[in-house]
Amino acid sequence: MSFKLLRLIFAFGGFLAITPWSVEEQDKSTCQKCYVWTFFAMTTSKCIYAMFNYKISENTRNCIILGAIEILLAIFNFYVMIVLNFLKKRQWSRLLNHLRILKNQEVTKKKTPYYLNFVILIFVYFVEYCFNLYRMFPYENWYFTIMTHVQHFLYFIYNFLLFTVATMLLKEYRSLNYYLSCYSKDKMSLLLIRKIAKEVHFLKRTVNIFDEISTWPLAVNIYFSIMITLRDLLFVIYDFGNIRGDVSASYYVMIVKFCFGTMSVVSWTLSLILLYNSVSEEFEKFWFKMLKLQWNFSNATPKEERQLYNLMGFIKENSPKFTAAGFFVISKTTILNILAAIVNFLIVAVQLSDG
């Protein structure tokens, strides 16, 4: 992932009012501010319209899940459009400055175009969009249909932005690991460890800024994935048999919807969780290498031992950590917690339905 790709994503994000218009300038003009507020009002009005138009008398269980989905999307819109664009715009500037410095340290070049992955994902989204238009035609409410797809595209772009920045951070920790592996025990010195400690501290500050920006969207991602999965599973369990018409055709449509709809949402969440966890694991590998190289200073003086001890403690304190809105730390166990939440809800739903 390159800084050029980040420029491309910011161009799309600025149009969707979820990021600054460019990576160079974070201050918005009056017209741009009005545009952000207008876009926020349009997307949020769709969520409010959906919540007040679900028929509670028809299916209370589904109504609660669908209402929760719209509330999560409204929270997502408010945070990425209003909070980050107006209240935390300095965080964007600081993060981009840090990433720009990391970009200047890159020496490797990719043979494939930097925009290839982004174009492929845009194409996949376009296929999903065409399928949903075909499946939902004719439309009872054009505004609701259009804004629903705009909301999904907004959600997709922001997740790809988080994925891109997290990949850049993972690449930097891997480079640091490779940099450490190039030095033999005989070449290690306190001066070199001090240089490594500064780089680790800089990466930790970058991670903290990124975590402050992405913490709430990631939390919404997790709960949104849970609700989307529950919605489709409960539909298959209770409502699929009530479909009128060609059941076999509805079955294939449900499979395609699950692959393009549910799995696209869940896959983003799982990818981000595993990517964040990979950053932490890469630092652990780096830390174990540092512990092994520490034995090279067995003949050091007491003063050098104290300096080495302080530097090692400083490096350990700067281990990267990602959280979901400060509620819990992201790791592989988060995936198991998501599965447990889905299973527990299904058990309660089945028991209430049987009762």
TrEMBL record:
Membrane-traversing stretches: 6-23, 35-52, 64-87, 114-134, 154-170, 218-238, 250-276, 322-350
Keyword Cytoplasm appears in the UniProt entry: no
Gene Ontology cellular-component annotations: axon; dendrite; neuronal cell body; plasma membrane
GO BP term (any one): chemosensory behavior
Cell location: Cell membrane
Keyword terms of this UniProt record: Cell membrane, Membrane, Receptor, Transducer, Transmembrane, Transmembrane helix
Record's bilayer topology term: Multi-pass membrane protein
Main location: membrane
Protein purpose: Gustatory receptor which mediates acceptance or avoidance behavior, depending on its substrates.
Family note: Belongs to the insect chemoreceptor superfamily. Gustatory receptor (GR) family.
The protein, known as: Gustatory receptor
Lineage summary: Eukaryota, Metazoa, Ecdysozoa, Arthropoda, Hexapoda
